[in-house]
Design a protein that fits this description.
This protein is mainly β. It has a single domain (47-351), classed as Beta Barrel (Lipocalin). The chain is built from 4 helices and 15 strands.
């Protein structure tokens, strides 16, 4: 079998059987990556030295919640565990038209949704972090001008991702931390019979937005730089969604580009008190990496938003933040607000929490 034929076999949609097959292939691929990374890391010299990590850990970097809408750029120290419960909401009654604009119109569907999310992170090494994300969904929607509403409560999608940090920032220069992001989203909502959400996406949250109920693969790059009393971080992510099947017809959604930029201003180091400005963009592009023509309308869409966030440290192990994302412009997408809340609970070796 040629390489092109092999990839064609992987992405060929075959209904539910095909979805299970693609999921198994994706899990095998992720497992192979997990097994090979330690050997690659040992052979690859593009890793921070112990001296560079120690220097960074002694620099200004107060313990705070950090961004809500961007995964942490720095890696959990080896052996340190982190649990992050989030609540992401969405309320939208209007939508943007078929061009990028700030003008709104009444949406045919009025939507309210809440997505509780839990992230479990563990530092495999000082360079590599593994993450498991479980989510749920509650939604209520009704047509414009209709008092009759439909609701749904169920399991959301499950996400696995790895973060590898080849570069750690230098406090004495402009060099930032740089992290490579690798993610697979599993359609567990389909497995548990959860109905699709209008618009096709869960409320925007910490992870790159992916299509609800679809198997997808995301690659990204993140950066972070501390410039007392500010911290600046961001990321760019590209998502490929596996072909689906609706009523016996193959469906080919376009690929997705997510970007994030976050500016934190820490006002009180001891209390972990500060505020953020978090900028979000979401773009559905009218093409696919596998070359198939996109056959889902709309073929492209965009969303631009900004969120003010407040963060605070409650104890030496517990920090939190709250904010609300406001959409400022869009195309073929719902105009909504996204209230959200975040908590972090750390524990490490001997109960001592170490900054990353």
């Amino acid at each position: 079998m040629t390489l092109s034929a092999f990839f064609a076999w992987i992405i060929r949609p075959q209904g539910r059987t095909g979805m299970r097959r693609m999921t198994c292939v994706g899990l095998r691929f992720l497992l192979c990556c997990l097994l090979s990374i330690p050997r690659l890391a040992a052979a690859w010299e593009w890793t921070p030295s112990d001296e560079e990590i120690a220097k960074y850990r002694k620099s200004w970097n107060p313990m705070t919640n950090g961004p809500i809408l961007l995964s942490g750029v720095d890696i959990q120290p080896k052996g340190q565990f982190l649990f992050q419960p989030f609540v992401f909401g969405q309320i939208g009654h209007q939508r943007f038209g078929n061009r990028l604009t700030t003008e709104r119109m009444d949406s045919p569907t009025h939507l309210r949704a809440v997505a509780p999310t839990g992230i479990f992170a563990y530092g495999l090494t000082d360079h590599l972090e593994a993450n498991l994300v479980l989510s749920g969904i509650w939604l209520e929607s009704n047509g414009s001008g209709s008092s009759r509403a439909t609701s749904e409560t169920g399991m959301g999608d499950t996400t696995l991702y790895l973060k590898y940090r080849p570069i750690v920032q230098d406090p004495d220069s402009w060099r930032p931390s740089v992290t490579i992001y690798n993610q697979i989203a599993l359609p567990s909502s389909n497995w548990f019979g959860t109905k699709g959400i209008p618009g096709g996406f869960s409320p925007l949250g910490r992870l790159p937005a992916t299509r609800f109920g679809a198997l997808s693969f995301t690659e990204g790059a993140l950066f972070r730089k501390n410039l007392e009393p500010f911290r600046i971080s961001g990321g760019v992510f590209y998502t490929y969604t596996a072909p689906g099947n609706t009523a016996g017809a193959n469906t080919y959604p376009g690929d997705i580009v997510n970007t994030r930029l976050v500016i934190e201003h820490i006002l009180d180091d001891k209390r972990g008190f500060g505020y953020n400005l978090e900028f979000v963009t979401l773009h559905g592009v009218p093409y696919r990496l596998d070359g198939h023509a996109v056959n889902i309308n709309p073929t492209s869409f965009s969303l631009l938003g900004v969120q003010p966030t407040i963060q605070y440290k409650f104890t030496e192990n517990l920090v939190g933040a709250a904010g609300c994302l406001f959409t400022v412009a869009g195309q073929n997408n719902i105009d909504a607000i996204y209230p959200n809340f975040s908590l972090y609970y750390y524990w490490g070796n001997n109960g001592t929490v170490m900054m990353r």
